[in-house]
Amino acid sequence: SQKIEQNSEALNIQEGKTATLTCNYTNYSPAYLQWYRQDPGRGPVFLLLIRENEKEKRKERLKVTFDTTLKQSLFHITASQPADSATYLCALGLYNQGGKLIFGQGTELSVKP
Amino acid sequence: DSGVTQTPKHLITATGQRVTLRCSPRSGDLSVYWYQQSLDQGLQFLIHYYNGEERAKGNILERFSAQQFPDLHSELNLSSLELGDSALYFCASSVGTLNEKLFFGSGTQLSVL
Fold it and tell me: Is the pLDDT of residue B99 over 70?
């Protein structure tokens, strides 16, 4: 069956450390993958998009990798800050599905000062 | 502020009733998407409209329907409501239809009692 899985447990890290979040998928052939941030009671906010032919993308303190062989994406936040505390969602974009995204359940990140 | 406006923010209704959720996309965006978010199911794609035409459908119930009007705003109609329809309903918009980052509204929290 088709699945997209993120770390189910909350991730607690110390300020200044690097947070690494995982997104694994099975039985999908995504054209691209996106990461979103969601705060409680708010809509998701787009962070990064990486295409199937790209290995890595960076934006400021954020880095995402995409390994289509392992069927996995890793999302890194370096020099993390308490303001980075939120739920992070990965989403797959499929061929011939237009803009439709398949979302993971999300990983809750808590950065302690 | 994403530029996507959803009304109302909260809606409380009874089983068997019908409600309409409204969404105004960002200026210039032609695509509108509807997503449902619940604790157990996560963020689930319902339907996508592009410039007034339906482009993709997810696991949207037959009791649910949507449309996009000539001014590009969209409405999601939910009828014969059941307790299980209680969820956060998000609208998102994007410029086109492919490999697009989505801009989400703040959502409508629907409670069916």
Answer: no
